[in-house]
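re: that complex we talked abt at group meeting.

here r the seqs, copy pasted straight from the sheet so there may be weird spacing, ignore it
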Amino acid sequence: MSQTTDWLDERLGVAKGGRKLVNKIFPDHWSFMLGEIALYSFIVLLFTGVFLTLFFVPSSHEIIYHGSYAPLRGQKVSEAYASTLNISFNVRAGLVMRQMHHWAANVFIAAIVVHMLRIFFTGAFRKPREMNWVVGVLLMILAIVNGFLGYSLPDDLISGTGIRIAFSIVLSVPVVGSYLAFLLFGGNFPGDSIIPRFYTIHVLLVPGIIIGLLAAHLGMMVRQKHTQFPGKGKTNRNVVGIAAWPAYAFQAGGFFFLTAGVLAALGGLVQINPIWLYGQYIPYKVSYAVQPDWYMGWLDGALRLMPSWETVMFGHMIPTVFFPAVLLPGVTFTILAMWPFIERKWTKDDSIHNLLERPRDNPKRTALGAAVLSFYVVLFFASSTDVLANSFNTSLNFVLWSFRILVFVVPPIVWYFTFHLCKETSGVYNAGKRKRALVINLSASGEYSTVETEPYFEKEEEEIVELPEEVAFHSGVTEHKETANELMFATSHSSANMKTSPTDDIGPLRSGGTGIFRIPRNVPGGGATGMGSRKRRPGKSEE
Amino acid sequence: MTISPEELNHHSTGPVESKSAERVVAMSFLVSFLATVALGVTFWQGGQPQLEGTFLFVALVGIGVGTVSWGKYLVPQGPFVEEREELVSTEAEKAAFEASLGRGTSELTRRKALTRLLGLSLGALGLIQLFPFVRSLGPLPKNSLTLTNWKTNARLVKPDGTPISVNDLEVGGILTAFPEGFAGNAYDQVVLVRPSQSAIVTKPGRESWAPQGYLAYSKVCTHAGCPVGLYQQLTQQLLCPCHQSLFDVMTGATPVFGPAPRPLPQLPLLIDSNGFLRAQAGFDQPVGPGYWERS
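got the structure back, here u go
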């Protein structure tokens, strides 16, 4: 027993709970890493964000620029803009940190969206995980809001135009719109309080809420355990996969560095938001091809496609902006958050689901999801009508009307094809599996026949083993003599390095490992000996 | 229980492969370390974004590849199985839980009234505390959305504050103008265009509004408030670059395309005896995007 374990255990009792933690099982599937990408991007956002706060000045106070970027010298700029230039050109590693922060935000939201699609299409949101789905939707909304706030902080021409549009959107809310806009933005647009206010919300309020919800998101996941795809030995009542320690911890920890590494490469090599080219925000200036970050694209597209209907009734106006920019996101996020409950009303399904569905096995949900998704994808592309018209040398009118038609025509088509594709594939044996090569044999009598080649590596064939109950865990229950022996065994083997032959009688080790992991036993569906069970294991007498 | 060597081989990763995996891990960590050294040198030398990004990438990915390979090839992979514990409690446990929650309620005779009073005092405290906070966030709109600084006889000035004279704009030219004393004001901005030499009548009743071909419209788009900054002389149209609304200059900036619902309000102009452009009066309607109180 190490001194550290003793010391900690006497104070916190870490051994009991800690063992449970290191034995937690994580299903091994690539799609489970999407949420991890989001989490790791968020960590990168926190690190780079703290760096940026040390140099950013959240103020719209006007100064004359004297910095190192020559083309802007002598111009009137805000302190926010000037300090962003300073970060980009003078602070060591400042540009990389700033661009990493921006890229991480884009990747963060992208990962959240794809993660959500995975959850949706595999039915992972079903009972008992409805609450976690709602928390996830809230996290996505907050991520989008904070992305927009951060994007607005440098006070450059493009983001300033974005704030102007946001002001008009808040203004369009019926009844309270003008009051809401004046309170949120500190008066009529533009005003001096927008940048400092956005800054506090961006670095303090929203990240704080995100961290809280994230804790709830992960806490609920640990409590309810992961879902898993159906497969050999996987049931609704067990989890099959790799153990938290060491396999998962090493893989996930390494994956954080991989994510951060890719973000660093993007931040260092791929330019994003070069505000020195856009210039300081001046309310009467505007730039061509004004586009927000990608996650706002669907809203911008909706604003462009919306016809110019403005309703005036009983002396009151509902502006045209209200429908695409307030009503649409409102309805979108409400239905999204309520989806588990809506579907449950539909299916009347009250059972617990820990096994995932293949998307093809639920054609109705998959087709509906794909159709709705295609609607937003069309809106996203509609946010570049002007660029498309320019690059394809066609009229804006044509592009706009094409999108107005596409946004209604594409979803039903997508629905039809997805639905029938699901129906087709769900009945096909081995659909989605890797095809094996056929070997054509010519027999002596001149007949031809085909044989499938041997599988090169079938993961499916692996035996599922019960989580090893380390020898030490049995100690203190009964036989003291044997316990002592086994303890010696455990320590001698765990201290032995990887080079020990895996043919020792402790058990086969897929990775030539340390010897503390024991004989694999096939437990289809799992027996009574769950984790932490003190029952003697049947294989033991043979040792 | 013994396992034959064949079976073991079937489980792949023998000592040989394990050794090569160890080599990969070691190499990754080493590469990462070297990249970190290079990164340090780059910082020392004053920094260079592309190099920093590249070295940081190699340093992080080196650790990443090494650690993931370690977790993938050098430690047991299972697959292991773990039973799910039952989340649902028994009826007895639930009953006990509710009983614990209901502790002490039976002794109270006026529990409902007390709870309501607590709710009242807490709610009132919250609301009253919220008021100064919310109220301090910003001024009330009052008439700031309906009134601009354009008054009768206000002189038109350029963004730098210099007054605009009748010779400042060629036919086909465009200028952004403000009322004198308010140069740069976001809400007062006006786009000044000159489609021709002679007076233009954009709408009946606006006969005297465009002397010598000068037309002034509010530059704040009636859709989402962007500056309507692009002027196409050939078609006499103003374009808002945010959402591509097109306004026809000759007919009072009526929207001809895109999501803008209303014409840009027109500013009636006059030319004073010194040849400077002035406003005959303010706008006859609120400028910019719509809102509830606007009718």
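couple things i noticed - The helical segments of chain B are 5-10, 15-44, 49-73, 91-101, 111-136. The radius of gyration of chain B is 37 Å.
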